[in-house]
Write the structure tokens for this entry.
Amino acid sequence: MLVPRWILRSAVAAAMVLVVLMAGAGCSASKTAPETLAQPTAADGLANLRDLFRQAAAGKATLPKSAADFATVEPFYPVAGPFVLSGAVDSAWGAGLKQGGDAATRLLAWETAAAKDGGWAMFQDGTIRELTADEFAAAKKAAP
């Protein structure tokens, strides 16, 4: 059975119009890239560092015993790296994630400014929250 030419021409024309409309829908001169990108925060760095601790807990990575040890794996943790290597974030190196007991109250990693000004901290159970300087002073550090 043959399809009349006028139906084929109409279908081709409709398809071409649809392609043009779809192509034009995403092209707008008013859309511009942002002037500056948001910089990662210490909380972002701690979240990336938590990835390392999670991998170590799963047996897929070795816990760093120091910031120097962390430097060897830093390329795999590009958000945490600058914070740790600059000293803006410190950790109870050698300690890892654990659940239960007092893990929710033991500091595993923290923003170094937290001792004086308050800041972000990660606890041994993996939670990350902002602490005041007094809360930071009262918290115990995780033991390796």
Notes: Residues 42-141 form one domain. The first strand starts at residue 89 and ends at 91.
